[in-house]
Amino acid sequence: MNQNEFMQLVNPFKDKLFRVAKRLLVSTEEAEDATQEVLVKLWNRNESLEEYNSVEAVAMTMTKNYCLDQLKSRRASNMKIVHNNFTDREASLQQKVEDSDTWNWVEKIMNELPEQQKLIVQMRDIEEMEFEEISQILDMNEQAIRTALSRARKVIREKMIKTHHYGIG
Amino acid sequence: MASDRIEKLIEKYFEAETSIAEEKELKEYFASSDVAQHLEQYKPIFGYAVQAKQEQFNATIPLNTKKRSSVVWLSVAASVVVLLGVSLFTYNHYNQPKSNDLGTINDPEVAFRETQKALAMISEHVNKGIGSMSYLNEYEQSKNRIFKK
Q1: pTM for the model
Q2: Do B44 and A17 touch (CB under 8 A)?
Q3: Could you tell me how far CA B137 lies from the centroid of its own chain?
Q4: A70-114: per-residue pLDDT in tens?
Q5: A42 touches chain B (CB under 8 A)
Q6: What does the pLDDT look like over B32-53, one tens digit per residue?
Q7: Which of A11, A83, A148, B23 could form an SS bridge with A27, CB 3.0 to 4.6 Å?
Q8: What residues of A are in contact with residue B24 (Cβ under 8 Å)?
């Protein structure tokens, strides 16, 4: 496989990988780095790529694992999580409420979810993937995914309603 | 679109029992302008999902692995050259052929005299060594005296 063929293979889902990485790592730069890393790893596996049924699922799994590793090592080294765009968002939070720009609220609420729920919500609600694909990537059974998804959606709803009323009151 | 159908879908949605098609229907409904007042609160959830899918990955993918490998080979080659250079230098330095040529004598008589001279020198030095050993006899004498042989 040459570079062009590889790019054609990767193009349909590279944005998806990036969004999943960003969901977990929050920072845009880190998500870009993670996506690059995963794609280069994939490129290095070039010869064995044909063996997989779905390269996309493999790439998603690699991205997930890579990001979780990043988060783990970040926690292990006791580094404080300081992202520029994270703090920026927080600074303008009050303004966002006034503008009733509630999309950012949803994003903020999603950032507070546990990692697994983040991944599930990202893949189901945003990327519109079937439960079967998600269960393959996360190595979980479908029922467990449904349970976690339902829980996450309800948490988002509750917090949304709270901020909604807060905005009115 | 009937809002009671949407309400049912929302209920199913929060139990995670909706299909992809139903979820798309919900997203479309909340993107439209005629959202029922009491459902307005769910608008951001579906709106955000649609908006979040727009984000794109714009960084380039560094796939020039071939270039990197040639750099690796270049450094390997360079180190081999340096190693060879150093080892050749030291080899030549320590193994320089010492000039063993001491000259030859063609006239047999002269050669005979020279050999005699050389042998005499050796015997002279050997005798000198023996002379300095003579006092070892003292030990022999005193040993005999002690053991009364």
Answers
A1: 0.65
A2: no
A3: 68
A4: 998 887 776 555 555 554 544 455 544 444 466 677 888 898 999
A5: no
A6: 888 888 888 888 889 888 888 8
A7: A83
A8: 128
Between CA B135 and CA B124 the distance in angstroms is 19
Chain B: residue nearest A160 by CA?
A: B41
Print burial letters for A57-86: b (CB count within 10 Å at least 16), e (below 16).
bbbbebbbebbeebbeeeeeeeeeeeeeee
Cβ–Cβ below 8 Å for A153 and B52:
no
Q: Judge contact between A138 and A20, C-beta under 8 A.
A: no
Contact call for residues A109 and A166 (beta carbons, < 8 A): no
ipTM field: 0.77
Q: Are A16 and A122 in contact (CB under 8 A)?
A: no
Nearest-CA residue of chain A relative to B52? Answer: A126
Q: Distance between CA A16 and CA A35 in Å, rounded? A: 10
Using a CB-CB distance cutoff of 8 angstroms, which residues of chain B are in contact with residue A35? Answer: 57, 59
